[in-house]
Known about the structure:
With 400 residues, the chain is of the alpha/beta class. The protein has helices spanning 57-68, 83-86, 89-95, 105-114, 187-190, 192-203, 207-218, 237-248, 267-281, 297-306, 323-334, 354-362, 383-398, and strands at 5-8, 11-13, 16-18, 23-24, 28-29, 34-36, 39-42, 46-49, 75-77, 100-103, 124-126, 132-134, 139-144, 154-158, 163-165, 224-226, 254-262, 288-291, 307-317, 320-321, 341-347, 369-370, 375-377. It has a seven-stranded mixed beta sheet with strand order 1-2-7-8-9-10-11.
Amino acid sequence: xxxxxxxxxxxxxxxxxxxxxxxxxxxxxxxxxxxxxxxxxxxxxxxxxxxxxxxxxxxxxxxxxxxxxxxxxxxxxxxxxxxxxxxxxxxxxxxxxxxxxxxxxxxxxxxxxxxxxxxxxxxxxxxxxxxxxxxxxxxxxxxxxxxxxxxxxxxxxxxxxxxxxxxxxxxxxxxxxxxxxxxxxxxxxxxxxxxxxxxxxxxxxxxxxxxxxxxxxxxxxxxxxxxxxxxxxxxxxxxxxxxxxxxxxxxxxxxxxxxxxxxxxxxxxxxxxxxxxxxxxxxxxxxxxxxxxxxxxxxxxxxxxxxxxxxxxxxxxxxxxxxxxxxxxxxxxxxxxxxxxxxxxxxxxxxxxxxxxxxxxxxxxxxxxxxxxxxxxxxxxxxxxxxxxxxxxxxxxxxx
Length: 400
Ligand code: FEO
């Protein structure tokens, strides 16, 4: 049975939720599921904006058929060619063989890479930056958004109703639970952390490109944002745009300390715990701690984008950095995190080496300063080391 959601008088959400998926992109846990958003515009011409993942084909096709109510599908706009949105292009072409695909040249090339169906060239409308499609009452303009989050990405702006179809931008993990508008749910408490985790892990590497799109968007009068995942924004857009501006420029949201540790028998954890208590005694609020071997790195990376200060504490393992910490540090470097203040604690029962190696990886982060001296412990924290930890805590607290 169909399940469509009304956005405006002539715009409908025809997407679907997936709450069974274990790992989005085979990497990210999504305990609250994920939505694949697709939108259908019923103007003088009918227009589908993007499709969905193959996991929800049946629901998607029922939705479209019901929403069209016997009408023909005239256009299918493709903004992004990642399979969580483009997988159903062949299904649409098969069911509506006269549909015209509206996309840019890179998208057309990727359609041919991914799929085997053949369409006459006149069934493609290839657009350039700033081109428009008039569908009757609506005028749709295309704005290119390369690397947000693949090179072919564009966004579509409805100049009539001032709606931005933003592709992956402004999306979130989490299914849409009944409501479709962000102002109908407690977004700050229920979804903002997941929106941050989604952005930082998936698009976080491409801050300059996201900033470029935000600058383009600043020139548009936007009343509503329809992303490809999560809720539709029609109120307080500036709240979310402000978050994106911070995330894209690697600006911390919170002046406080994130402590990430890797501990085998508890000695390194003990050092991290002592440091956290000393930080609290120096007045630092909202300290957060993770055992990097316990929490999925996507959650820790999201908080690394949130916090101004990060302490990395690791044991030495195989004469190197403990594997989960090493993976996490590579993840942070790969995501281009910058503008942070960091500190290092190392442990090693007979040959501590990970402090130097961690520092080498951290040095790859732009505009990132190491605070204080590395604290080295051997096996367990001894009385003389509590003073070193205290000095480090004071140095960190003073820099906040
Ligand atoms: Fe939601 Fe880049 O795909």
